[in-house]
Amino acid sequence: MGAQDSNRHLVFRAGNAWAAVPVPAVLEIRALPEYTPLPGQPRFMRGLIVVDEKIVPVIELGEALGLEAEETESKVRRGRLVVLGQEKRRMGIHTSRVLGFVDLREEERAGVEVLAGPIAAIAEEAYMALDGWVAVSTFDKLFGHVRGLITR
Fold it and tell me: How many separate helices (H) and strands (E) can be counted in the chain?
């Protein structure tokens, strides 16, 4: 990744908040596929899918964080799947909206203390964009937080 790409992130909805991850963590974005539900898992754990012959857990990040659903979000299985990965670890995020790839400008950056509510739990930093704050996470922080919620 070059210096020009260092602030390029994928921005997507997590409940009623915006979240972002660095482009190198994004493996693919696709229509939400059918997934295999797992009994006895937290409600935010939607199930499992297979991506490139690897089993990938699918989560609803907003629900995992306890965020309210976006006003227009439906309870039906619609939306997009963002598949994230690093090394051998993979995670699918079911999201109602993907804004796209955005260059986050340094002058719009702030510390996580500007974020209100549970979205701050996954944030490394925040950027002012989209008429509000975007919680920017790393793959490691996001994966570790979700893993902790599942194994509680």
Answer: 2, 11
Instruction: Encode pLDDT of 36-81 as tens digits.
Output: 998 999 989 999 999 989 999 999 999 999 998 875 544 445 789 9
CA dihedral 61, 73, 118, 58 (to 10 degrees): -10
Among 132, 129, 144, 133, which residue's Cα sits nearest to residue 64? 144
Q: Are 80 and 98 in contact (CB under 8 A)?
A: yes
**Longest pairwise C-alpha distance within the chain:** 46
**What is the per-residue DSSP string for 99-119?**
EEEEE--GGGEE-GGG--SGG
CA distance 152 to 148: 6
- In whole angstroms, how far apart are CA 88 and each of 16, 126, 140? 30, 27, 12
C-alpha separations of 94 from 1, 7, 29, 45, 113 in Å: 26, 23, 10, 10, 26
